[in-house]
């Protein structure tokens, strides 16, 4: 695909996922909005409020004026504090108020994306508080498709309504997480030079990838099959996503570790690639 086609693909993936969230929320009873998700401290309402907050900021809306309570245990640093503010601001809102704002925000963002005149390589601001930085426009759209889909799955697990596991945004997520594997295996987990770590992922979006640690200690990833890697990690697609996004602890995840158990457990402990 050309760069502009890639931008359109990311936009379409974001659109499909965020509209699926709106459809998922429409029939929810009031008590379901308070169900806990795998995001520490966040309920269904909180995850939706987070999505609204980020998309609103991308639209240029001012940050809400709000004082955070001091007893939020999951707020542990400047980044989580930044992300919490628009969430806590909406904790007293009714489901109707939240869904109405979500629908209005989606309409505004969709219009803004259609009318955008950015080139794929133009630098734009990624709003993430202390982690904010300028990124190419295509990268921003990729990150938004990824983030919205991951939170869609947070909501679906909390509400026990599975779906969209192989959607366009799921493919964006798969490719982004695979791209992070060399760093996680080589740098974070400290796999030794010459090691190979194979990932066998089954389910709605299956794939096989092998991470190789080169003579310089750097990792690379490809789709070749290695018959006898140092360690092979087999799991389903949802488990892979939950591990990479910090939604489940490695010791409680269902993963088959074949080969070097110590290295395999170390890799699993360092798979998380999101803040």
UniProtKB/TrEMBL annotation:
NCBIfam families: maleylpyruvate isomerase family mycothiol-dependent enzyme (TIGR03083). The lineage of its organism: Bacteria, Bacillati, Actinomycetota, Actinomycetes, Kitasatosporales. Residues 15-156 form the Mycothiol-dependent maleylpyruvate isomerase metal-binding domain. It comes from Kitasatospora cineracea. Residues 174-263 form the MDMPI C-terminal domain. It comes from the Bacteria. Gene3D superfamilies: dinb family like domain. GO terms for molecular function: metal ion binding. This is Uncharacterized protein (TIGR03083 family). It holds the Pfam family MDMPI_N.
């Amino acid at each position: 695909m050309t760069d502009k086609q890639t931008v359109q693909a990311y936009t379409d993936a974001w659109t499909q996922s965020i509209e699926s969230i709106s459809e998922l929320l429409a029939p929810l009873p009031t008590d379901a909005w308070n169900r806990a998700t795998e995001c520490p401290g966040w309920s269904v309402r909180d995850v939706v409020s987070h999505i609204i907050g980020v998309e609103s900021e991308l639209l240029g809306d001012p940050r809400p004026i709000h004082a955070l309570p001091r007893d939020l245990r999951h707020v542990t640093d400047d980044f989580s504090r930044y992300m919490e503010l628009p969430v806590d601001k909406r904790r007293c809102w009714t489901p109707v108020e939240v869904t109405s704002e979500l629908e209005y925000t989606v309409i505004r963002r969709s219009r803004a994306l259609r009318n955008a005149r950015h080139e794929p390589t133009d630098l734009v601001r990624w709003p993430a508080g202390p982690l904010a930085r300028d990124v190419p426009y295509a990268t921003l759209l990729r990150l938004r498709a990824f983030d919205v889909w991951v939170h869609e799955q947070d909501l679906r697990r909390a509400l026990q309504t599975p779906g969209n596991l192989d959607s366009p945004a799921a493919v964006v997520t798969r490719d982004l997480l695979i791209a992070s594997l060399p760093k996680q295996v080589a740098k974070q987990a400290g796999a030794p030079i010459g090691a190979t770590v194979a990932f066998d992922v089954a389910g709605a979006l299956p794939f096989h990838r092998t991470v190789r640690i080169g003579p310089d200690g750097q990792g690379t990833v490809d789709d070749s099959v290695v018959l006898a890697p140092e360690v092979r990690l087999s799991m389903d697609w949802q488990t892979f996503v939950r591990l990479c996004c910090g939604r489940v602890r490695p010791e409680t995840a269902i993963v088959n570790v074949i080969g070097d158990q110590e290295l395999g457990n170390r890799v699993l402990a360092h798979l998380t690639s999101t803040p």
